[in-house]
Amino acid sequence: MLKHFKLTILIILCNAIVFGQNRPTDRMFVTRSEIVAQHGMAATSHPLATQIALDILKSGGNAIDAAIAANAALGLMEPTGCGIGGDLFAIVWDTKTERLHGLNASGRSPKLLTIDYFKERGLKSIPPLGPIPVTVPGCVDGWFELYNRFGSLDFNTILQPAIDYANNGFPVTEIIANYFEEDCKDLGHFPGFKETYMPDGKPPAKGEIFRNPRLANTYKKIANGGRDAFYRGSIAKTMVDFLAKQGGFLSLDDFSSHRSEWIRPVTTNYRGYDVWELPPNGQGIAALQILNVLENYDIANLGSGSAEYIHTFVEAKKLAYEDRAKYYSDMDFNDIPVKELISKSYAQHRKQLIKPTHAGKSYPAGKLMHGETIYLTVADKYGNMISLIQSNYRGMGSGMIPTNLGFVLQDRGELFSLKEGHLNVYQPGKRPFHTIIPAFVTKDGEPFMSFGVMGGAMQPQGHVQIIVNIIDFGMNLQEAGDAPRIRHSGSSQPTDEIMNNGGVVNLEYGFNEEIIHKLKTWGHQVQVGTGGYGGYQAIKWDSENKVYYGASEYRKDGQAAGY
Q: CB of 433 within 8 A of CB of 321?
């Protein structure tokens, strides 16, 4: 009884904080208004990166130029989540072709590393740190693919703001300072880490001016030498030599043969809106699968934040994530039935497994006939829009910092399965399962919204909640991001973990105790707290008034701004 009373008081106090905003709206969780502008809009997870993107737009650059410039700045300012040692995915609305273009700029595993390496060492999973989980970083190639197809400014101009900040320094923001402290504890012992990210022997603190001249020099080489400076020149050689000394397997051939892939985004229609994601090796289609199930329910009538809505959402998520665990993988190695997975008929069949007042402890994958990241979005005066996401995977990735290059290499290879016969099993030259996903929404063939929600397995769940908040619950762009979120954890994974206990429903502060109690009586394990709910940015096009709306995430340090 005492424990129950204490929980009630905690929730009341937290609700008082969450709902204590003085805003001209009946949605008391809203932290700020949407940003509205005519000529251009940028929304990133760092205010300085947003301002860089706007400067590029104002100087005559387009949305793609601005996105690359912002991404380069974020690799400097938020190395705890992204950088040129990681991968990139993007969806671009191009006004000239009047359609969406998808880019998969993810890297592949070393050709010289085979699964026998793991078997011989008795490993059941790929370690998250060190040289072994490092795959070819695809970010830089992604930049040049975007630039060569859509860019307009000189590439030196695009990278110069990040180079200047790297040389002159910038003040560390609050969230990133906290991430630095956590990552430095785990990674500080790796070669070159302290020299790059702990120059004074400690992690950079909030407000401290941080410089990274090594990264500035690397950016200069890329700006002057282009893509090949990274994949065929001195930078590639430095990465390969460093990894070899640490016991890694990436070769010069792995780098020189790397290629990004232009792909057609896939879509489902949700109540008159076309929601677009990229096909695997990413997890984007999970959002489409969840939406297809939810469309069979009167979500608006269930009500935002109701136990009935939360239950339905969580069970739909569980179903989609069983398919995610079994099928999502590199499509160059597998014939994945994407069309069937995102079909309405398949969703109708799968929804039959959901019981209205009973939490499923486990679900089978469908039988078919056939954690830190950055997200940004930019729109320009021409009507171009880009949805871009980029990541090291786990915070500062593998901890591997090639000699004097100023960036950390990703550990995305951790996400391979080591189970023979699994579609995502480790193979040489293969792209691992990916968590980072950009999203886009069109209506009647016109752009409606570019958005994303960072945060590992939270991302498809976040995408769905944003869509539902806007379409079913009538929220505006900022309200949709500010609303308390749901995060289900414990689903089966593409790395062999199996759900057999129903997992855990994690709720942000803002849901009342009556709802929590009802969910528990239906068999859900429920936890209430902060953290792990992602980071959101979005831009919406208002075709009637010819203006952009922008929104950013109060859970991060981000900013949306326009002109």
A: no
The string of pLDDT tens digits covering residues 443-488 is: 999 999 999 999 888 999 999 999 999 999 999 999 999 999 999 9
Closest CA to 562 of 42, 189, 5, 25: 42
Asked if 475 contacts 300 with a C-beta cutoff of 8 angstroms, the reply is no
> What pLDDT, on the 0 to 100 scale, is given for residue 362?
84
- So what's the pLDDT on residue 530? 80
- Find the distance separating the first CA and the last CA of the chain, reported in whole Å: 55
The predicted model gives 217-231 an average pLDDT of 97
330 in Cβ contact with 281 (< 8 Å): yes
CA atoms within a 13 Å half-sphere pointing along the CA-CB vector of 18: 20
Cα Rg of the chain (Å, integer): 22
- Say which DSSP state 400 is in: -
Mean pLDDT of 113-121: 97
pLDDT tens column, 65-110? 999 999 999 999 999 999 999 999 999 999 999 999 999 999 999 9
Active-site residue among 373, 377, 435, 495? 373
pLDDT reading at 518 higher than 50:
yes
What's the average model confidence in pLDDT over 424-439? 96
Please state the domain extents for the chain: 31-283+328-335+370-485+533-563
- DSSP-assigned states of every residue in 89-149: EEEEEETTTTEEEEEEE-----TT--THHHHHTT-SS--SSSSTT-----HHHHHHHHHHH
Six token digits for residue 332: 């160059």
Residue 62: both structure tokens together: 């387009």
DSSP assignment, residue 358? Answer: B
Spatial strand order in the sheet of 261-263: 261-263, 99-105, 87-94, 385-393, 372-379, 41-44, 559-562
Yes or no: say if 326 and 423 are a contact pair by the CB < 8 Å rule. Answer: yes
Q: How many CB atoms lie within 10 A of CB 237?
A: 13
Q: Which uninterrupted H or E stretch holds 310?
A: helix 307-327
Is residue 19's pLDDT more than 50? Answer: no
pLDDT at 20: 46
Six-digit token pair at 185? 């504890």
> What CATH topology corresponds to 31-283+328-335+370-485+533-563?
Glutamine Phosphoribosylpyrophosphate, subunit 1, domain 1 (3.60.20)
User: Strand 504-507's sheet: what is its strand order?
Assistant: 486-489, 504-507, 525-528
- Do residues 258 and 264 touch, judged by C-beta distance below 8 A? no
Which candidate, 307, 340, 236, 291, places its Cα nearest to that of 518? 307
Can 442 be counted among the known catalytic residues?
Answer: no
**Per-residue exposure over 77-106, b if at least 16 CB sit within 10 Å of its own CB, e if not:** bbbbbbbbbbbbbbbbbbeeeeebbbbbbb
